[in-house]
Amino acid sequence: MTRLDDLLTFLAARGGIASFTVVVEQGFARRTVESGVAGGVITRPRRGWIASKDADRQLVAAARFGVVLTCRTQASRLGLWLHDHRGRPHFAVPPHSARKLPVDAKLHWGRPPLPRHPDALADPVENVLAHIAVCEPFEQALATWESALHSGLVTVESLRGLTWKPVARRILLRATPFADAGLETYVRERLRWLKLPIRVQIWIAGHRVDTLIGDRLILQIDGAHHTGSQRSEDIRHDAELMLMGYRVIRVSYPQVMFDWASVQDLIMRAVAQGHHLAR
């Protein structure tokens, strides 16, 4: 394996891109870089940076613009739940920066909870959550925070050790690691006013249920995958739950997202009739 091959392997482990300073610190000679550029396998997206031809395009853009991927953009890259994945990219820029970009983007200033290395192109999850907290509506931000907790990328204990802005502190006080998807966060928050025990993703009769309200009322949310054999299993499980004394309300993703008033009305009527109580 040549030194150029070694360099390409090193770049691949970093998303295909690195600062020239880091490359030199790793012992690669300038002539190795020049050889890669001449051969068309290495590019220079910006002064002081090199990238392989198949480098992560978003990281290359960050290096070219002199920004850091953060907030919704980096949350999506980390696989966190977002209310939707549309919209312009979100970048962090140095405090007091007056930088103008050649693309329409949401820019985030301010000091993050974790210090950024000068060569950083993407924020760690803690900084992502800090920006999400002030950028997104509370309910949507909470869902993304809980996605990070559920995935194990962070813990409540580790987050408590950091300094947060007031809105982020409020999210941290409400966040739990048990919600499997943002819709479960939405449901729990939207039903807080009932002042009933609300538990998400708990095991009953050998399967997880989305939300248990009180002692016996179960809300199940069907996604696009609830078809075929999955649908048949859901029907079987619903019957088993009812034989055990539970009441099941099953709704769809669009109902929760776009017709919450109707879903809430069903739950209110079930609670009014005492279906949430153990008999």
TrEMBL record:
Gene3D superfamilies: VSR Endonuclease (3.40.960.10). Residues 172-271 form the DUF559 domain. It comes from the Bacteria. Pfam families: DUF559. This is DUF559 domain-containing protein. It comes from Microbacterium luteolum.
